[in-house]
């Protein structure tokens, strides 16, 4: 595969060789291996890996799992030889990506990768306990029963720990997108503080190929602040007055650089699996939401036809783009008097994301956090350029003034 194509391949990024991990990633991988060896006979232990979007969490976890499976299946001298290990991920597109990396010569098997509910239900049915379970996107684990996803217990992390001796979690509180998986740092630490545990933090930004001012701007926006637009010669940060002009710019970038796609906040009607197309619309722009294709072999942004679609937060979470064109819908507005973003949960079309919020201590704050988290996920996808258009006139005026 030519180098340019490899850089645009999600599979290549996920299957990066160990010698291409950073010193920080290699150090954390070694810490996890040593933790597993030290707790090889423990009843329960947890290693927590944290990091913001784009810090290489999934890359590290993929490499780590391959190393553990090599020890478990190919290294008779290792104390971990014969261990039964699994990697779990809730995101169906990420699960597809992990499984696509399995080859006949690999130490990995497709059955090693499962969704959390599948693993939990099978383990409960068979009264089974395994050795090591790695969980990617642990912030997506359910914190309450969810009949739609066939989860009847109260908390997926509790159930995973019940059926594994060592649990390795990758977690980012800023990427929680639903009340039914509403994690806060305190909830997580309470669950691991009473057992042998260790934590590590990934800090180096890999996705956003720019000065830290770009990431700082996105983080500030996530906290409802609109800062002066940063300038970096290596990163294109643009605000468009017309959504169709933005789309044409994304199409051009897709032709010249690849992996350029349209994204939008979940502020436009959509119904999953109803057999109909649904559209993201502005006065000058109309494009269908991404079509759900569970049998597609490649992930959404690598399909040629997805340039004619708009991806949602659920489509793109966990993946990279070279250029992201984002339409910010009416749930996010701007207050000129107080110079801050204002969040309107009533305009958020994914009302299912708020199911169960009334049982939380502060339902409104939770809804605001979910919308802001979804915006953060969208904005943190781009490696080389971020293009914005806002539906709210006040926010659009503010962005253009920057």
Automatic annotation (TrEMBL):
Can you give the residue ranges of the Schlafen group 3-like DNA/RNA helicase domain?
A: 45-392
Which InterPro entries does its entry note?
Answer: P-loop_NTPase, SLFN_3-like_DNA/RNA_helicase
Q: Which Pfam families match?
A: SLFN-g3_helicase
SUPFAM superfamilies listed in its UniProt record: P-loop containing nucleoside triphosphate hydrolases
What's the domain of life for this entry?
Bacteria
Protein known as: Schlafen group 3-like DNA/RNA helicase domain-containing protein
């Amino acid at each position: 595969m030519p180098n340019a194509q490899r850089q645009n391949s999600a599979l290549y990024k996920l299957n990066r060789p160990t010698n291409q991990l950073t010193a920080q990633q290699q150090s954390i991988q070694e810490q996890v291996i040593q933790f597993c060896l030290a707790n090889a006979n423990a009843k329960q232990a947890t290693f927590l890996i944290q990091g913001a979007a784009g810090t290489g969490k999934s890359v590290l976890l993929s490499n780590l799992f391959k190393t553990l499976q090599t020890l478990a299946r190919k290294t008779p001298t290792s104390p971990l030889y014969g261990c039964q290990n699994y990697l779990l991920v809730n995101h169906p597109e990420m699960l597809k990506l992990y499984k696509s990396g399995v080859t006949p010569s690999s130490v990995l098997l497709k059955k090693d990768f499962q969704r959390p509910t599948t693993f939990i239900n099978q383990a409960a049915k068979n009264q089974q306990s395994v050795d090591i379970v790695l969980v990617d996107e642990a912030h997506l684990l359910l914190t309450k029963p969810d009949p739609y996803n066939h989860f009847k217990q109260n908390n997926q992390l509790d159930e995973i720990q019940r059926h594994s001796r060592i649990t390795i979690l990758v977690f980012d509180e800023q990427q929680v997108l639903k009340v039914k998986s509403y994690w806060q740092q305190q909830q997580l630490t309470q669950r691991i503080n009473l057992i042998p545990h260790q934590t590590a933090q990934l800090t180096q930004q890999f996705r956003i190929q720019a000065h830290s001012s770009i990431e700082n701007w996105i983080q500030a926006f996530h906290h409802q602040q609109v800062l002066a637009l940063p300038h970096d010669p290596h990163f294109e940060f643009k605000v468009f007055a017309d959504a169709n002009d933005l789309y044409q710019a994304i199409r051009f970038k897709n032709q010249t650089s690849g992996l350029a796609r349209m994204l939008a906040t979940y502020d436009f009607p959509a119904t999953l699996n109803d057999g109909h197309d649904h559209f993201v619309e502005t006065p000058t722009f109309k494009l269908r939401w991404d079509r759900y294709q569970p049998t597609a072999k490649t992930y959404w942004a690598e399909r040629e036809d997805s340039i004619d679609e708009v991806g949602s937060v659920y489509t793109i979470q966990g993946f990279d783009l070279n250029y992201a064109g984002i339409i910010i819908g009416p749930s996010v507005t701007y207050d000129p008097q107080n110079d801050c973003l204002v969040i309107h949960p009533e305009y958020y079309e994914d009302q299912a994301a708020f199911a169960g919020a009334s049982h939380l201590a502060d339902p409104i704050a939770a809804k605001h956090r979910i919308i802001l988290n979804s915006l953060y996920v969208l904005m943190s996808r781009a490696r080389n350029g971020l293009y914005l258009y806002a539906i709210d006139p006040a926010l659009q005026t503010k962005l253009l003034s920057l």
